[in-house]
Records
---
Amino acid sequence: MRIIPLTALSILAVATTALCGGTSRGDELFASENRFYLAPIIGASWGTLLDDSYDSVANQDLFTAGGAGGVAFARERGQLRMEFEGRYRDSFGISQGSGPVQATLNVTDNWSAMVNLWRDFSITDRLGIYGGGGIGGGGYGLNFDASVIIFDISGSSRLSNFAWQAGGGVLYALSERITLDLGYRFYNVGFGDTTLVLEAGGVPLASQTITTSFATSEMLLSVRIYEPFRSWR
């Protein structure tokens, strides 16, 4: 007489575990061993070109995309991740003036290559948070053209310098090997110089050096894939 109730309870427990995600290895946010991973990255970047007084010269909403690869080291209640990240951002620019006075400024080829260190912490079997940052290099192209009656001012350069970023975010495990990462980053690349030349009728008259930097706040979505080549073994 007790077999039916016990069997029903067992079935209910299995069904509840399946619906709620359970605690099986396939539902864990972090594994107990070190793992390699790859992660495509896309997001929105609110970029600002700064002068040497840290005043905004130009700003615009940009699209950014790239990828990262690294190793996640198992730690208590989470993991420590070391990764290499490369990303690219949209070009942007401004045009101002009227009549005989016109000026155009463009920022192109905006790139970054970073070495990052992140610390992940688990909240539940599927949900977690993280924080950290990285250092590396970044750069962009700066192009300036202006005309004032009979005078022309122009200059272009390819700037590259030390770059850094910091941020954090939220993690959600879709499976043992796939984790969604929604995070915020602040990124900055150091100052660089561009020489502007004043000409009249093609004859150089004077030159001036301007100093600029690029900084941005970013919201990024990445899909972290652990052991992506496991099926090839």
---
Amino acid sequence: MTQRDTGIRYLRLRADTLMGMFQRLQGPARAQALAALAHSTAEHGGDSARRVLESAGGDTAALLAAIEKTAAELGWGSWRFGERSATRLALEVTDSPFAEGYGAADTEVCAPITGMLQAVAGLALGGACEAREVQCRARGAASCRFEAVTRSKP
């Protein structure tokens, strides 16, 4: 099944099918593949987020609300943006399909959410950001938590 949204093609794929690929990779290869997925999501998801921000007239609160709604519609779990400062944006995700699809893990596995947060935070905070998952359901936490912080300027 596919869905199109303003010329963007979406693919519906079982979460365990996608995440099973990562389970089958060994340590360094798994880490590289998850990082590549996060970067790709930041790039391509960032394009979508920029369009949302433009359609919201630059209103970053409207951007965050739209991202929360869209994430749920796409099956990416229930997103709730939390603490926001000039340099930091927090996100909590309950019911992450990536954590559920992966199963028990010894590391955080929600790379697509990390990538999307990196892109969205860059728009909401007005500059390049680094995002990371700070707790993951795949590691036994009740929910997945993420934070993005603005990159230091050299």
